[in-house]
Amino acid sequence: MTRSGAVIGLDLGGTKISAGLVGPGATGIVRHAATVPTPAAAGAEAILTAMIDLVRPLAARAEADGTPAVGLGVGAAGVIDPATGAVTAATDHLRGWAGTPVAERLATATGLPVRVVNDVHAHALGEAHHGAGAGRSSVLLVAAGTGLGGALVLEGRVVTGAHGVAGHLGHVPSPEAAGLPCSCGRTGHLEAVASGTGLLERYRDGDTGHGPAEAASGADVARLAATGDRWAAACLDRSAVALGGAIGGWINTLDPDVVIVTGGLSEAGARWWERLRGAAAAETLPAATGCPILPAALGASAALVGAASLLSTRTVD
């Protein structure tokens, strides 16, 4: 169903929750954006409360602007049932999040129609429609942030799969992650080395004398690598090569028009990008050579724009 008027886009990630007014119309322009930290360890009720507290002032602002909000589009961490907007599964990044009826609770609290997809699916929709994938028919987005996820957008629609699981790129086997624990409870998955959290954990694994005070995030490890910390550089290289090799495999499997890389690790610098692209090229079949691997263009607004598109057109398969 197509709606006119402003739509509130909401993006729930592992570290922050963002919201903003998008539109009216399919402009991709975000107004009055606001962000708060995700109370990830406090449980589902605290997370829902933080989301509602972001949405209500935006709805009032839209009313004051003369373009009342006509709906709320949400990109939320976890496996989402696209029919009900409930979380069917989640990793331990968000405590107690699995089973949360997100759409139902937000609709009751706000009085707005609500559509929910996975947060990375929302990012992909935003980039495919208005960002680095605009004008392309097949877009693979890889999100290397707190965790590692992704999404495939075909002809403007995100592929969610039979169970809403499509795009969990971090949960594929990786030789670089052999024996390492993953956030999903299994071992040997790509996320354990190629996410920001995985990079930090691998850095802390080293017997180098470095500890949490030296690095508190994957971004800190990247900064240490840039200053000549050899162990940080080795960990960063391992992370980039693992992800790049996987991207090469996905190019061979899906043959997309473009691969877009987003998330905190995409800001790790030239060294990370060089090794990622090199590893991808080493795995890509000759017939698929030349598939561009690009940084995302919309930044933090991508998920808000993509989530809002859930109310403006049919964007989910």
Short characterization:
Helix content is 37%, strand content 21%. It has 317 residues and is an alpha/beta fold. The protein folds into two domains: 6-127 and 300-312, 2-Layer Sandwich (Nucleotidyltransferase, domain 5); 135-295, 2-Layer Sandwich (Nucleotidyltransferase, domain 5), CATH 3.30.420.
What order do the helices and strands come in, and which of them pair?
Layout: E1 6-12, E2 16-22, E3 30-37, H1 44-64, E4 69-76, E5 79-81, E6 86-89, H2 102-110, E7 114-118, H3 119-130, E8 138-144, E9 148-154, E10 157-158, H4 191-194, H5 196-205, H6 218-226, H7 230-254, E11 258-262, H8 270-283, E12 293-295, H9 301-312
Parallel strand pairs: 1-4, 4-7, 8-11, 11-12
Antiparallel strand pairs: 1-2, 2-3, 5-6, 8-9, 9-10
Helix pairs in contact: 1-2, 3-9, 5-6, 5-7, 6-7, 7-8
Task: Record keyword descriptors for this entry.
globular; 5-stranded mixed beta sheet; Nucleotidyltransferase, domain 5; alpha/beta; 2 domains; 317 residues; 12 strands
Folded structure, characterized:
The protein has 2 domains: 6-127 and 300-312, Nucleotidyltransferase, domain 5, CATH 3.30.420; 135-295, ATPase, nucleotide binding domain (Nucleotidyltransferase, domain 5). 37% of the residues lie in helices and 21% in strands. The chain has 9 helices and 12 strands. It has a 5-stranded mixed sheet, sandwiched between helices. Strand 1 and strand 2 form a beta hairpin. The longest helix is centred in the last third of the chain and has 25 residues, at 230-254. It is globular. The model has no long low-confidence stretch (mean pLDDT 92). This is Transcriptional regulator.
